[in-house]
Each structure stands twice: as structure tokens, then as C-alpha cells.
Amino acid sequence: MTNDQSGGDQSELSRRALLGGAASLMVAGGCAGALTGPPIVPVSGPAVDPEATLTRIAFGSCLDQEKPSPIFDAIIEYEPQLMLMLGDNVYANAEDEATLREAYAALGSNEGFVRMRESTPLITTWDDHDYGRDDVGSEHRQREMSQRVMLDFFGEPADSPRRTRPGVYRADVVGPPGRRVQVLTLDTRYFRSELRRVAARGRYLPSDDPSDTMLGQAQWTWLEQQLQQPAVVRLLLSSVQLLSNDHDYESWGVMPLQRERLLSLIGSTGAHGVIVLSGDRHHAELSVLEDGAPGYPLYDLTSSSFNRPRAHPHEINRHRVGPMVDVSNFGTIDIDWDTGVIVLRIRDEQGLARLEHGTWVEALAPKPSA
Asked: Tens of pLDDT along 268-282?
């Protein structure tokens, strides 16, 4: 597995805070004191074999650490070669380090999660409830602390770029030429501009302000560079949905200029094989943009939640293909390199497919110019 080594905006982040150690915590009374809460004990597991040919990949989001999570039995039975966790990996809503540590400690004592991690390589990003509070972006005051604690829990190596720059975005490449999978893990929290709320909780007005950003300039520059790297299939991990933009909850749709920028960037870089994986919504669905800037059908497979699903039976999504899945679920991607078939699925707690869609690797390539 090859990790990106690009930097970016060092001034935005305290190296001391990220590198851990005996940091201080501002307690309720406003005084600096020793850290409280349980110690961070990383749950270790195998690393990805950079030469492996990936054929089975699992992913999902939204895990309430206080609730039972039998979904991990089904994930283990699927035997993924790689597990992708897309955020809300704990529900902490933490404004202080002690609360965040307690949430991760609960996850670390989850038998199913531990067994899954011990057998499966893992790549993670965060969403609002493990980053900070509900729907928060760059205005979160404790974002440096949240990054350090997350990286400590998931055992991020000391020499990882995520230890020395703001944000948890990363790039990984797995597999030999001709069967290479690139995993592009976005951070849609650390840099994201504050959203414009309307009266109802959780609802937002689309912004037409060109200064608003989803990724921040350093991450945008990094992403453009990464999309030009050689790969056959690219999994673009976004904690929030990209294509479903008829609802007014959090998504790329509340920043339509940023959404269009991402779609245009995929097209302008000529990136082959992009499949978006998203979470956040507490239901699962598949969205597809048939005709757009990428020059081929762009899929956004949403998997949520591991153990706290919620029904949205009347929600409109003009890009939806197949049913909405409102039970506990995880997503899988099966690649048959010999036949060139990719199958996208949403599976339930029994591992049964509730949604299934197949496509061809060669169909995820820009059409040649006439």
C-alpha cells in the first residue's frame, strides 16, 4: 500500500497537539490540567498488502458504540480484504477530550469490532459525531484534539502525513498494474465552511457563495494530484453524499458550486474508475449520474448505519437506482478482474444482499475523443 506524502497548510495545525504525548486540556473551569478519561488503546490489526489484488472490499458508517452491533459478524463472514469506515465511527459529540476518549474506549471494548479489526486491514475517515458535534465543520474549536485522538485510536503510524498536517484525508494504492485500486479518503469536516441553517433542525440552504469550501484549498490541490495517478478503480470516500441532492440535509448538494467542482475535477483529470462511497444518512441507497463531467456513469453507494438505521420512505432522490434500505447495513464491492465485472451491494445483519448492481470495469472509463 502506497500512502501519499504531500503536505499542506502546516500553520493551521499544532504539531504538538497532533503528535500526542502529555498535552493539556482546557477543563470546564477554564484552567489547563492533566488529561482525563481512559487512555487511548489502539485496536491493532493487519496492514494492507501493497501487492494484493483486491477483490472483496467492505465499508459502512454510523456506529453507536453504546448499542449492540451484530453487523460485525456478517462483515467477518464476508471476509473482506479491506474495511473502510466512513465516519460517525463513534457517537461522541465531544467538546472535550475526556468525552471523546470514553467513546473510543467503548468502541475498543466492542467484541465484534475488535474481531473484525484483528483480521481485516482498515482505512477510516470521520464524520460529525466522531469529529465534533452534530453537522459541525471548520468552526469546531477542538478539531486538532479530535484528529489526534482519532489517529491514536486507529493506530496511525508516527510517520503518516495525517500526523503532521490538518485534516484526515489520505491516499492509498493497492494492487499490481492493471488491477490497481486507489482509495482516496476525503475529509469533509476539518475545512468545510459553516452551513446556512433554516428553521427546521438539520435542514440547510444551498450556498452560492464562491468562498465556501468543502475540502479547503490544500485538500483540493492534493485531490487533483491524486486523481492523475495511475489506477483502474478509484474508491472516493466521502462521509456525506455526493449525488443525492434533492434533500436539504448535509451533503455536497448544500454547496452546489463545490459539488460541481468535484464532478468537473474527475472529468478534467481523466480519472478512470471513480466510485463514490458515502455514509451519514442512516439508510442505504445507490445513486448514479449517467451523463456528467466524468464521461462515464458515476456511482455513489451510500451505506448507513451499522446499528442505528432510520427510515426516510418519502425522500426524493432523482439519482436513486433500486430500493432504499432502512435496516442495519454495510456495503460491499466485489471485483472480478478476470471478467471485468464490479458488483456493488448493500448487505444486512445476516449478510444478505438488499441492493445489488453490477457494472463493467471498462464502463468506468472516459469515452475517447472523436
From this structure: 999 999 999 999 999
